[in-house]
Design a protein that fits this description.
This protein is an alpha/beta fold and 308 residues long. The chain folds into three domains: 31-70, no CATH class; 85-195, Response regulator (Rossmann fold), CATH 3.40.50; 206-293, no CATH class. The chain has ten helices and seven strands. The protein has helices spanning 2-47, 50-54, 67-84, 95-110, 128-136, 148-157, 179-183, 206-219, 229-248, 254-261, and strands spanning 87-92, 115-120, 142-145, 168-170, 191-195, 295-300, 303-306. A seven-stranded mixed beta sheet has the order 2-1-3-4-5-6-7, with helices on both faces. Strand 4, helix 7 and strand 5 (191-195) form a beta-alpha-beta unit. Helix 9 packs across helix 10. The termini are far apart.
Length: 308
């Protein structure tokens, strides 16, 4: 019995000794921790001022702030968030959306963006499967490649499927005022689109107003849906063609016209007295499209408008 008691006392002593040493070590470390925190808060609060957030880091011994460090941290976090955020693409299975999908998806992937693709048949009205898939994968933005009716139904059904308060980016086919009554004007705040000209026909900017004035003088009151993008592009490109014809000289031939056309740089209607409702066009020997620019657009007061 004595041996058992002695063994117990020895173990109790070792346990208490180790516990005491552990507590002493912890206390020793806590002294330095509280010392660091005291110095940090004491000097930190004294340094807090607008200068800290508005001025660059100075050389040693000079006054200044941490603006560049703060900006760098925000930029790194924002970039990392963007790269790691999945983007949804909702694309029609017919020709035009598929052509856009083949262009857009590889570009996003090349930039390190995770892309979730869901597809639908032409004129679809039920997007439950696609939207549920997006919700499960927690996409933070959805690009729609399809018509305004298809986009409208998808956006209208999204909240019921767990998708809300995310940006919707529409291609040119869906960037149409007719989408507004489908989803409701109150639900257009997260819509983004693009347009292939400087203005929508309904905008009241001076070039558009003047274009509508000469249109009405020539053809009378425009019918519903006219003038449209193609009217504007046709008008603008006619002026660009006139500049190419002028540059070709009196001996006009197909070769001289093309040679003159390929010399045009930032040609626009106002160069010959017209109104600039299209982007300036530049043509070269290897690029005959003239323009590849698009204008970002938003719904403002119930109508699409180009915004910069």
């Amino acid at each position: 019995m004595s041996d058992v008691t002695n063994r117990y006392r020895r173990r109790l002593f070792v346990n208490r000794f180790n516990l005491a040493m552990s507590l002493a070590t912890m206390a020793f470390g806590m002294v330095f921790l509280f010392w660091i925190l005291f110095v940090l808060f004491k000097n930190g609060f004294e340094a807090l001022s607008p200068t800290l957030f508005t001025e660059m880091t100075p050389p040693p011994g000079s006054s200044g702030g941490l603006l560049n460090a703060i900006y760098g941290s925000v930029l790194i976090v924002a970039t990392a968030t963007l790269i790691s955020t999945p983007i949804g693409i909702l694309a029609g299975t017919y020709a035009f959306p598929q052509a856009n999908l083949k262009e857009i998806q590889p570009r996003l992937v090349k930039r390190g963006v995770e892309v979730v693709v869901e597809q639908f048949d032409a004129a679809a009205r039920d997007y439950t499967a696609q939207l549920v898939s997006f919700a499960r994968q927690r996409v933070q933005a959805i690009v729609i490649l399809g018509s305004f009716t298809e986009a409208g139904f998808a956006i209208k059904q999204a909240p019921e499927k767990g998708i809300a308060n995310i940006p919707w980016i529409l291609d040119g086919s869906a960037t149409n005022d007719a989408i507004v009554p489908i989803i409701g004007a109150e639900n257009t705040g997260n819509l983004w689109g693009y347009f292939n000209a400087l203005y929508f026909p309904t905008q009241t900017d001076a070039p558009m107003v003047n274009f509508l004035r000469i249109w009405t003088a020539k053809y009378g009151q425009p019918p519903q849906g006219r003038p449209n993008l193609y009217d504007m592009v046709g008008y603008g490109c006619t002026y660009v063609l006139a500049q190419a014809i002028k540059g070709a000289g009196r001996n006009l031939t197909p070769d001289s016209l093309i040679a003159s056309w390929e010399k045009l740089k930032d040609a626009k209607p106002s160069d010959m007295g017209g109104y600039d409702v299209i982007f300036p066009e530049t043509v070269t020997a290897t690029e005959h499209a003239g323009n590849s620019k698009i204008a970002p657009s938003r719904v403002i007061d119930g109508k699409w408008k180009v915004v910069w």
